[in-house]
Amino acid sequence: MTGRPIYAYAHFYAEPQYYLASQADEIWMHPMGGVLLSGYDDHQLYFASALKKLGVTVNVFRAGRYKSAVEPYERDTMSDDAREASQALLGTLWGQYSAEVAASRKAKGFTVARLTNALPTQVERADGDLAKLALGSERSIRLVRSARSTPI
Questions:
Q1: Could you give the CA distance from residue 151 to residue 145 in angstroms, rounded to a whole number?
Q2: How far apart are alpha carbons 129 and 133 in whole angstroms?
Q3: Per-residue pLDDT of the chain (152 residues; tens, 9 = 90+)
Q4: Which of 8, 74, 104, 144 has its CB 3.0 to 4.6 Å from that of 24, i.e. a possible disulfide?
Q5: How many other C-beta atoms are found inside a 10 Å radius of the C-beta of residue 99?
Q6: Which residues form a coiled coil (predicted)?
Q7: Mapping DSSP to helix (H, G, I), strand (E, B) and coil, where does residue 11 land?
Q8: Domains, the chain, ranges and CATH?
Q9: Cα(26)–Cα(50) distance, rounded to whole angstroms?
Q10: What is the DSSP string of 80-95?
Q11: H helices within the chain, ranges in order?
């Protein structure tokens, strides 16, 4: 290591950008920007009814629980087993993300939960200002107008 400080700059940080920025000594952000970490989710299209209306017959063979790959062809909603499996996987991944970001930030009392829990309420309290919300949650974030300027 060179011993030089590392700065991350972006207008907006979502999960991937913030993960990378968390490795920096300081996180710089445009005053009109923000940090929006909403966690991981699973989106699946279900179209059994559409296939039925189109007269398409789907033949599927499966055995056992947690075999949800073919559910979109057979159902219009996620099954309880698929939801359970998805929540377990995404919960594990989010826990790992949160732990790694918190460890790399090395900020006393910092947790990713401070940026994610009760997000709508927090945004309302910050008058819709995501930059203000980020500053209140993460003390090492600095507001700058561009990557070449100094913190405000």
A1: 8
A2: 6
A3: 688 999 999 999 999 999 999 999 888 988 888 888 888 998 899 999 999 999 999 998 877 766 788 999 999 999 998 999 999 999 999 999 988 988 888 765 566 776 777 777 877 887 888 787 777 666 567 777 666 666 66
A4: 8
A5: 12
A6: none
A7: strand
A8: 7-38+83-143 (3.90.226.10), 48-80 (no CATH)
A9: 50
A10: HHHHHHHHHHHHHHHH
A11: 15-21, 48-53, 71-74, 80-105, 113-116, 119-125, 130-137
- Burial tier of 96 (Cβ tally within 10 Å: 0-12, 13-18, 19+): exposed
> What 3-state DSSP class applies to 46?
coil
C-alpha dihedral (39, 45, 49, 50), degrees to nearest 10: 150
Contact 137, 115 (CB under 8 A): yes
Beta bridge partners of 141: 27
One-letter amino acid at 137 equals S
The C-alpha angle 40, 134, 122, rounded to 5 degrees, equals 75
